[in-house]
Amino acid sequence: MATPQHKAAAEKYLTSVYFDVLEAMRAHVRPFVTPISKVLAHDHGEQLGTGSYIDIRGSRYLLTNEHVARELQQHSIAHQFSANDSVFRCINPMVALSAPVDVALALIEDKVWEHSIHTALPIPQSRFASKHAPVQTELLFVVGYPGAHSRFLFNTLITPGIPYLTQEAPMVASHGNPQYHFALNYSPEKAISPEQRAQPLPPPPGMSGSLVWNTRVLECHNARVAWTPAEAQVTGIVWGWPDVYLIATKVEHLPLEDLAKEALAQAQLRAALAQSHAP
Q: What is the number of H-type helices and E-type strands within the chain?
């Protein structure tokens, strides 16, 4: 029988492994993600949600939730490349599917992507799993931009990304459609951080649009394969927060190819109309 000392040592070891995975995934995913803000004035904005850059057939797109993109009906929305202070308005139309999928996509033109120096990268389409199917008790990773940690200083929206390592939770039908959705544990009062003076895990508003990564740590361990963050795959997209859970749409219900095709067509139409009205 394991003694209390053995149990404490095992728990300490597992915690150190979790922190190593958390830090590795945070560094790996950082170039892919962006805060999404709503533009309130030319020099002022407010944190709205989270987005990711993805690559589909050689073109780059901004991916988020439909309910985040819906803000375009009232305000412009903007994104920000990694390691760059500039904020770029979304100039192309968002092509979207509402609930139960809740996903939106817009083309990012080359001239925007190449406007300034940054470290952003698009997620290759091959990194999206064909189906949400993590092994039991697998570690799942999310990084997003909660509004509670955002502030506007010196005409700049300061929005730190919050990484979070968790596991899948039982899906309650009242929280979503089990055919389309899955749940993640998200309990701020129970979360622990590798940083000694870390802020508490914030409420999730602003995390909408965050991609869920299946780290595949346990899958690799069971297969006796060395793990690196490059093994991780996107397995869903977060859209809701009932009680102590995050709710995400399963990756197999994200029609990225179809949305990208329509987003490209909409961007080309916008460019043609703009050209026709040019002096």
A: 5, 17
